[in-house]
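Chapter summary example: a protein plus flavin mononucleotide.
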Amino acid sequence: MLRFSTAGESHGEALVALVSGLPAGVPVDQEYLSRELWRRQQGYGRGGRMRIEKDAAHILSGVRHGKTIGSPVAMTLANNDWKNWEEILPVSEGDAEKHKAVASPRPGHADLPGALKYDFKDARYILERASARESAARVACGALAQMLLRELGIEVASHVIRVGTEELGRDASFEEIRTIRERETVLLACVDPEAEARMKSQVDQALRTGDTVGGVFEVVVHGLPPGVGTHVNWDERLDGLLAQALMSLQAVKAVELGRGVTAASTPGSQVHDAIAYAEEGSGDGFTRFTRERNNAGGIEGGISNGQDLVVRGYLKPISTLRRPLPSVSFDTREETKAAYERSDVCVVPAAGVAGEAMVALTVARLVIDKFGGDSLRELKRNFDSYKDQIRNF
Ligand SMILES: Cc1cc2nc3c(=O)[nH]c(=O)nc-3n(C[C@H](O)[C@H](O)[C@H](O)COP(=O)(O)O)c2cc1C
Ligand SMILES: C=C(O[C@@H]1CC(C(=O)O)=C[C@@H](OP(=O)(O)O)[C@H]1O)C(=O)O
């Protein structure tokens, strides 16, 4: 079973990422890994921290001569900002000035519930781990999952479809979305330059007014055969697993599969994707069944149906505001302003990259569950044999 976990605090020495369950023989492309990490750091509206960090994953185990060997892959990602904190973080709470306590919790961040739960009067102990710095480690894990999926012809890409109140307003083809990955500079990762300019103006307004924005990213998986995930148990359904995977990302507050949101208010005849049967050589790429549209987002009954998987993550606006909202001091219990040091103002493109990682890890896990194999060769053989089986169903 493919599993991954992360450790590390935002301003600690390093992040740690651990992936187990990858078959042996998967080519590990360091350049691809670095590029995914770079992509997660991009986007208009990111704060000062991204000028400090230059993320890179150092592989400690599980890879020899450029390929996985079946053992867990352990990676570390250094925090450059650690050098600015290494003398502050060890200072005890007693020395409040030097300790840089966060003692007025930010509405929307994990500060207040975390401090209550873990019994701290300093939310720094909470924010260090709640921080989306952790998503860098997820992207390192996700890059490995993508390296496996690419060997099977399965691709994952994301783009931004909304920032604040500005949206793309049309469907994008997978070919268009794929080109976002290749961009040398990333503004808001939108396929349409005009919509991107409108999105930028939303960020500019937030920057001007000391506010923040949220938005929506879309992750698309191309080349996934029908039959991945299952309807038979609630916790093995592809839709449920994808929702959990994306919802677990910092600031994601809703997940949509296909046209899930508008479908709720649209008649069935306009929602469901009618089925036809094509001549040999055509069809959805896996079978001879075809659909003219993909409102289901590639999943029916918790099972992939051979169409592109389309999953959207809805982000709330960033909670740390330059013009802070009212809060209450842990020390005096009097009204004060929420803490502010520095912050991102918009993170939708970065969250999209983290979303790709989470989707890739979820899909790779189910692919490994279904097709098995301790080596990539064995997995591929099983995968190809299944594709033969369904081709002429
Ligand atoms: C890539 C990324 C960067 C983020 N940067 C910030 C930030 O600079 N400031 C902030 O307050 N929240 C930021 N967040 C969101 C917080 O991490 C998140 O709101 C917080 O941990 C509370 O979790 P919740 O929003 O999921 O409830 C970021 C999220 C992502 C995905
Ligand atoms: C460090 C990253 O994002 C951070 C996520 C984050 C938060 O509260 O989630 C707060 C900010 O951290 P800092 O207070 O150090 O500027 C972001 O920069 C990153 O994405 O690598």
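Key point: Residues 47, 109-110, 130-132, 135, 249-251, 316, 318-320, 343-344, 347, 350-351, 354 surround flavin mononucleotide (ligand 1) (CB under 6 Å).
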